[in-house]
Known about the structure:
By secondary structure, the protein is α/β, with parallel strands linked by helices. 44% of the residues lie in helices and 15% in strands. The chain has helices at residues 16-30, 44-54, 80-86, 96-100, 106-118, 131-135, 139-150, 156-159, 180-198, 215-222, 239-250; strands spanning 5-9, 37-41, 59-63, 90-93, 122-127, 163-166, 207-210, 229-232.
Amino acid sequence: MRTPVVAGNWKMHLTREEAAGLTRDIKEKVGGEENVKVILCPPFTALDGIVGECRGSNIQVGAQNMHWEDEGAFTGEISPLMLKDIGCKYVILGHSERRHVFGETDEDVNKKLLSAVRHNIRPILCVGETLEQREEGVTDTTCREQLEKGLEGLSQENAENIIIAYEPVWAIGTGKSASAKDAEHVNNYIRIILSGIFSKAAELIPILYGGSVKPDNIDELMAQPNIDGVLVGGASLNGDSFTEIIRKSALKTS
């Protein structure tokens, strides 16, 4: 059985002091939880401090983005070597806000993913459709294209080191969530695509759901066979809400 994964994407929120306080709260409540992988993804300014706060617990730290080059004249960017130096184990790539607000392409995401894997940073690859694409009935096609292009060139050997997150764009930060049935449909379709690319290794790849995940919908989401965890936005900024999501997700292995 795949171990459930709960990742908190703090986006552009929290000062270093606020991030440290939230981390201590989460660590105190679920830092010893062994039945779920917990990943905190704070802003770049807080990364170093949060890595320190998480020492002695089962909580891992990830970044929200990175460049594909190791170094160079890329003003305002962060390299995989910098993340590795801090102690980051994970990185979110291809989030819809990176794609739709900052114009990242599937090719950009692919270069970042291959770079992350090369540096032993585990990528969380996000895919998902816009409301317009959903209404046009091309959700599956959209996710397939993003997956195939994002994973191009990834070896079978490294396939089990990735995480996929299905995040419908229309459900991110809107308060709307895909129904558990709809999320399971897409996650199952993603599993089928991964099986075609990576064969047996596809069964080892966690597939998460993200999009207005809250304590009151986590039980139904985690009850689905192909939802292996969640990528949480707003609810991850509240210690009580986030730890409740973590505890309920851990029940999937019991």
